[in-house]
Amino acid sequence: MLLFLIMTFDVIVIGSGLGGLVAGAKLAKEGKKILLLEQESTPGGYASCFILNDYIIDLGLHAIDGMYERDPKIEIFEDLDVFFNVEFEKIPTGFYRFTNKRKDFIVPDSAEEAITSLTEQFPEEEKGIKKFFKTINTLTKHTHSIPRSKFLQAIVGPFVPILFSSIPQWGGKTAGELFDKYFKNEDLKLALAGTIQYYGDDPYKLSAIIFALALSSRFKAGTHYIKGGSVKLSYSLANFIIEHGGTILFNRRATNIIVKRGRAVGVEYVSTKRKAGKVNRVDAKYIVSNASVPQVVNDLLPEKVNKKFRQQINKADVGHSILNVFLGFKKSLKELGNTSYTTVVNNEGVINLADVSTNHKSDYEKRNFIFVDYSQIDSRLAPSGKSTGVISTVDYLENWKDLSKNEYIEKKKEIAYIFIRRLSELIPDLVQHIEYFYVSTPRTKYEYTLNPQGTLLGFAYTIKQSGMNRLKSKSPIKNLYFSSAWTFPGGGFSSTIWAGWQCAEQLLKKL
Ligand SMILES: Cc1cc2nc3c(=O)[nH]c(=O)nc-3n(C[C@H](O)[C@H](O)[C@H](O)COP(=O)(O)OP(=O)(O)OC[C@H]3O[C@@H](n4cnc5c(N)ncnc54)[C@H](O)[C@@H]3O)c2cc1C
User: Fold this and answer.
1) Domain that holds residue 95
2) Rounded distance, CA 226 to CA 47, Å?
3) Do 344 and 434 share a domain, yes or no?
4) In this structure, are residues 314 and 298 in contact, taking their beta carbons and an 8 Å threshold?
5) Which protein residues touch ligand 1 with a CB less than 6 Å away?
6) In CATH, what number is assigned to the domain containing residue 53?
7) pLDDT-derived band of residue 100, with 50, 70 and 90 as boundaries?
8) Atom of ligand 1 at shortest distance to CA of 37?
9) How far apart are CA 240 and CA 269, in angstroms?
10) What is the residue with the minimal CA distance to atom 15 of ligand 1?
């Protein structure tokens, strides 16, 4: 132990969310000496699961996008041996079922079929639908064509308006403006914005490019799920770090990033298992924080070294959170007649796309929600013959943070009953087959990952905070880097995996 404490590492990674795991795994593979500190007892952050009554609950994966031939994740997963340990299951039931009492139909997960299906539903919008799909494809092509190296970016920069004209055209616009440009029918806009809760809580604040890229990726290759849950991916990466000589300390929370002469040189940490435990210190050439950027500037860095940066971070908008009701069923929901993996349920009172943001702050009785039915695939989350599902709705920490223990328990129960009742309007026999439910609130998410507001995205995907405007991995403090949903390109599995990879590539040039 003494030897461990006087060791200097190449890199200390704080946090084992996907951004931290991927950065750590790549650096370990390239022979760097890695120490990863994780405050929880399992790896993954939101990419994690826990077991309740024989059911596996997946905290933060409903569906993973991409996985097409040239998706950058494929190269990363091959490099880090992920495909040896993790099986991806394609979701076979289309992108999602959209229902709001006025409309009830499947949005398929291929662009061609989606155009046909949407045109059948909204024949008067045929032209706009075709143009919309063309625009999101062009935006994807243009965004992916921007060179990765800063040098090439500087050369290409002046030609962007000519070569990649869709980027300046849509860069300053919101998803709402994108829909308004091509469609008149509000139900069509609402249907296409069905999965908005994974990216933003207000279509008229969410960056058009971010939502276009998200949709386009799903219409290109559909979505996948990890058999056995997202924790399989996290364990695969954590084991890879250990197999490549890295060290992971679970139940250790970083409490300070030590800065000497303007450089990050080490980390202090404590055990989360012991109250008032000893403070340990380890040193490294570089520090990578997968822990949230606000936590780093407000709690981990010395006050005097980062005043300006702290002000900048504390002014930024933090993304929303999600409330989940996890459900375990004695039977497969597929047998009960449900046919969709993802069902987007909009409240009938939501008439215009502009109503969505108000709806997200309305009564839980009326709030739009998404239901994911894992029984539609071989998810391996439930014992044979049984199944699991999860309800998700946009929510905010302020609705939960000041409640006493009893009030908190009671409110969780009350909300679970509301959503179970609302779900049983779609799947009538569901209630009698429920064996358990568990509610995860924004407060649960904050407590588990220490992400401010319990956000799943880091900074909100507003125009000012997305794409090239998003915070970069290299921090203003020398030798301190970020690798998480909070930095470029942003939140979600694909983005945080990419963030981790990019961060490792930058460090490998220096180490
Ligand atoms: C309900 C839900 C559903 C989602 N569904 C999807 C989906 O279907 N598809 C998709 O792509 N994405 C989805 N996401 C988003 C995705 O899960 C996250 O954006 C992504 O996993 C975040 O990864 P991250 O690297 O930023 O780290 P995080 O997951 O935020 O983890 C941070 C880690 O750092 C640790 N940590 C924090 N502070 C310290 C400290 N001081 N010391 C030590 N350790 C510390 C935490 O314990 C945690 O393990 C979902 C998220 C949620 C919550």
Assistant:
1) 89-226+321-395+401-440
2) 11
3) yes
4) yes
5) 14-20, 37-40, 45-47, 60-64, 198, 253-254, 290-291, 295, 322, 324, 392, 445, 449-451, 456, 484-485, 491-494, 496
6) 3.50.50.60
7) very high
8) 43
9) 23
10) 492
Whether residue 19 is contained in a domain is answered as: yes
Tell me, in angstroms, the distance from the centre of ligand 1 to residue 44's CA. Answer: 7
Is 447 a domain residue? no
The structure tokens listed for 279 are: 């403070």
pLDDT of residue 162: 75
Alpha-carbon span 88 to 94, nearest angstrom: 16
State the total domains in the chain: 2
Tell me the C-alpha distance between 159 and 166, whole Å. 12
Q: Quick one: tokens of 414?
A: 């009350």
Supply the pLDDT for residue 31. 97
**Quick check: is 190 in a domain?**
yes
Residues 425 and 329 in one domain: yes
- Whether the CB-CB separation of 71 and 455 falls below 8 Å is answered with no
Residue given tokens 């084992």 in the structure block: 16
User: Ligand 1 centroid to 324 CA: how many Å?
Assistant: 15
Judge if 214 and 70 occupy the same domain. no
Average pLDDT, stretch 293-319?
A: 94
Residue 42's nearest CA partner among 250, 318, 189 is 250
Q: Report the SS3 class of residue 415.
A: helix
Same domain membership, residue 10 and residue 69: yes
| Three-state DSSP class for residue 449 | helix
Residue-level pLDDT at 154: 75
pLDDT value at residue 147: 72
pLDDT score, position 6: 58
Examine residue 448 and state whether it is found in any structural domain, yes or no. Answer: no
Residue 48 one-letter amino acid: S
CA-angle at 446, arms to 176 and 20, nearest 5°: 85
**Residue among 48, 456, 487 to mutate when testing ligand 1 (max atoms within 8 A of CB):** 456
Residue whose CB lies within 8 A of the most ligand 1 atoms, among 13, 46, 213, 225, for a mutation test: 46
Q: Atom 52 in ligand 1: which residue has the minimum CA distance?
A: 60
Q: In CATH, what number is assigned to the domain containing residue 351?
A: 3.90.660
Query: What average pLDDT does the segment 17-38 reach?
Result: 98
Mutating to test ligand 1, I would choose from 290, 419, 440 the residue with most ligand atoms within 8 A of its C-beta, which is: 290
pLDDT for 165: 86
